[in-house]
Amino acid sequence: MIHKKLSWITLISVVGLLILAACSPKELSVQDPAEDFELVNFTGEKVALSTFIGEEPVLLFFHMADG
């Protein structure tokens, strides 16, 4: 009985780890280009990262209270 439970726990753990590995984000290196995305700025307008190509570096700020 214990062996069956351990086998199921092991199987579920392995499947869970495989799913996590498949869903994990790709590894990034220094100077890899960021994927384009769009956010709303403090004035309420949508701004895409791609609009800053060739400009100065972009700083993203996320206030912890904003969740």
Describe this structure in words.
Helix content is 33%, strand content 9%. It is an alpha+beta fold and 67 residues long. The chain has one domain. Strands 1-2 form a two-stranded antiparallel sheet. Strand 1 and strand 2 form a beta hairpin. The longest helix is centred in the N-terminal third of the chain and has 22 residues. The chain starts with a helix and ends in a 19-residue tail after the last strand. The model has no long low-confidence stretch (mean pLDDT 76).
Number of helices: 1
Q: How are helices and strands ordered from N to C?
A: HEE
Count of the domains: 1
Number of strands: 2
Beta-strand content estimate: 5-15%
Cα distance spanning the termini: 45 Å
Apparent shape? elongated
Class computed from helices, strands and strand pairing: alpha+beta
Largest sheet: 2 strands, antiparallel
Oligomer: single chain
| Overall average residue pLDDT | 76
Specify the helix fraction band: 25-40%
Tell me the layout of helices and strands.
Layout: H1 2-23, E1 38-40, E2 46-48
Antiparallel strand pairs: 1-2
Properties at a glance:
two-stranded antiparallel sheet; alpha+beta; 2 strands; about 70 residues
What would you say about this model in short?
The protein has one helix at 2-23, and strands at residues 38-40, 46-48. It has 67 residues and is of the alpha+beta class. It has one domain.
